[in-house]
Design brief:
This protein is α/β, with parallel strands linked by helices. It is built from 10 helices and 7 strands. The chain has one domain: Rossmann fold (3-Layer(aba) Sandwich), CATH 3.40.50.720. 45% of the residues are buried.
Length: 277
Amino acid sequence: MSAETLPQRPVLLTGASGALGRVLTRALGEAGWTLRLTDRVPFPEPLPEGARFQLADLEDGPAILRLAEGCGTILHFGGISVELPFETVIGPNIRGLYHAYEAARREGARMVFASSNHAIGFHERSAVLDDACALRPDGYYGLSKAYGELMGGLYRDKHGVESVFLRIGSCFPEPTDARMLATWLSYGDMTRLVMRATLAPSLGPDGTIVIWGASNNSRMTWWGRDGRDTIAWAPQDSADPYTQALEAKTSGNPVVERYQGGGFTGLDYSRGNSGKS
């Protein structure tokens, strides 16, 4: 491996036992990266060479600080990944994020934060957003991701911590409905995005960038300008081959079909069935 494909210091991956965490562990391990893995549940697969796993809860600040010792990048994929009540989300997704940023501050590490399209989910599908668009979360999960991006801005301004915010669309083995023809992010594109976010020598003068996490889907007309050129990332895969099979597979819910966040926008929605103002 060349120096350009290997981080100079170990990389901490939170949420390692989750679906995306396992994908990243396999791919980064195969690439020869030195990984520090953590989750609150055991890692369900054999560990790659150069990886070490430790059980830890994101709400355990001292444990997260210990895990991050010597690391140059924190890939923060841990926490609640679906819409749940606020009291469930607040611990891992807000308090846990604070512990991860404190670790990044102490170690001088770059943060690669798994944000989400649900941080902007109440923008309408007719809108074309850039990386400076207003945050419009579509639930408590999305709210925690918006909070995470704001925390990254605070840690940049106050402590000089660099952050890459990955506003992930729909990252699954393949798209499963019409909305994902726009929002799908393949595992391969996600892995390459994380690698470039880690290895890029600079994040530009601001020190924080937003990347729209979607593959090269022709139906992705909602998300425009972002910071991908700064890290030299471009998606290689596409949902387009699934168009014929999925283009008619919609929810039938006018609220869900109006807003970019899809099904999350319809959960506990009480403004009326049309979604109109």
